[in-house]
Amino acid sequence: xxxxxxxxxxxxxxxxxxxxxxxxxxxxxxxxxxxxxxxxxxxxxxxxxxxxxxxxxxxxxxxxxxxxxxxxxxxxxxxxxxxxxxxxxxxxxxxxxxxxxxxxxxxxxxxxxxxxxxxxxxxxxxxxxxxxxxxxxxxxxxxxxxxxxxxxxxxxxxxxxxxxxxxxxxxxxxxxxxxxxxxxxxxxxxxxxxxxxxxxxxxxxxxxxxxxxxxxxxxxxxxxxxxxxxxxxxxxxxxxxxxxxxxxxxxxxxxxxxxxxxxxxxxxxxxxxxxxxxxxxxxxxxxxxxxxxxxxxxxxxxxxxxxxxxxxxxxxxxxxxxxxxxxxxxxxxxxxxxxxxxxxxxxxxxxxxxxxxxxxxxxxxxxxxxxxxxxxxxxxxx
Length: 382
Prior knowledge:
Helix content is 26%, strand content 40%.
């Protein structure tokens, strides 16, 4: 007998009331369970918040704004997408952190304990569950690193992934949603106890280092690099690419990222924009004076993810769904390299659902140009 573990829905209308009704109907009018949703920042957010709250009266809701939406039908833009989790297979609790710059370890411990207690009250002791955490954070807060590190310290080994909210690459206003409101400078923490076997994972396609540069002047709080190799940062970055500063844009940043080496691994530190008044570079992720940034060689973006997913399929059998936090710069690279059809096939094959982010979270780290997610199998824990 087939199981209904999750359901996905997509609405392409920008009318908040109609979009919420579309989602409600496609999800078969749920009256319980949990819904995770993502929406374009093009929506009238206050109206959408009210419409979703009114439409799903007895269903828990959490979500955020995006730099693009990801569904089992492929990439979307200017849409509202949602996934429903059946209470027969998941016990889920969520909580808001309204001032992420003041989030201390004792706050994190209380938050984890609170989520455990809320989930525990809905778990049948005769069934076996395992937990994972998901975070959604204001993508322009510049506080993800501290927040995630603190939360991870309190999580006691619970696997964790997530993403930073976007706003269609406008870099102006990003929001998370909880209890009927879209909120700035906040984070949503979601604990998902699953009867279905799962694995939290991440995938990137950095292959090797090409050229190194030292950050010689930076402001870590604003994630701004003023100088690389003692030269104006934009000038030096453009030089290693053989380009002019005026040619630098998000498409270029997606194809030619910089990365920092931690241990044996490279982690992308993606550029957000050029500040033309002083030729500095703003980044999506943490930077500081003295770190070494490397221009890196990228591999096959589709094949690297396909290989990871096939490995998980071999381990767990076919997925019910794959929840995804997929960097917006990966999407731009996919479009520029002309492999959108190949990626769409992969999204269909594995029922991938999620959003394009301003940063990705994995086990306490904040990353760029990465796919982080959780593979949820159709098989239950014994």
